Amino acid sequence: MELGDKIPSVAMIDSDDNAVKSDQYDAPFILYFYPRADTPGCTKEGQGFTEHGDAFKKLGCSIIGVSKDKPAKLAKFKAKYGLTVTLLSDEESDLCEQMGGWVEKNMYGKKYMGIERATFLFGKDGKLVQVWRKVKVKGHVEAVLEAAQAL
Question: Where would you tag: which of 9, 33, 66, 106 has the fewest CB atoms within 10 A of its CB?
């Protein structure tokens, strides 16, 4: 995925069990990938986007989180923490792979494939304008908000 590209069209299921396509959302929007629902970093990230939801909404920005979790797990995650962001299930890793977020990871010497925590900002024309890879949660939402305000 390169700057200036539009998001690929991938069929997924949202946390309410609705069929959606990744390219159906109005621009501008933020697409963020997170490894797993209801884990500490992923929870903090979702809460951060929710806490700043009104500021993003004033800019006309939708916020969409994507993981490989099943829709039922996403629904529980959303309800448990009062998240207001849209959560999509990419169980087959189709969108993750096309966006370059399905990567080899290494934990305690064990290699495995997983989702890289990454965020993509798409501008008013629906084209990719900024990417954050290997995201550290602290301060990240504020950096994304600042970039969205500059659109």
Answer: 106
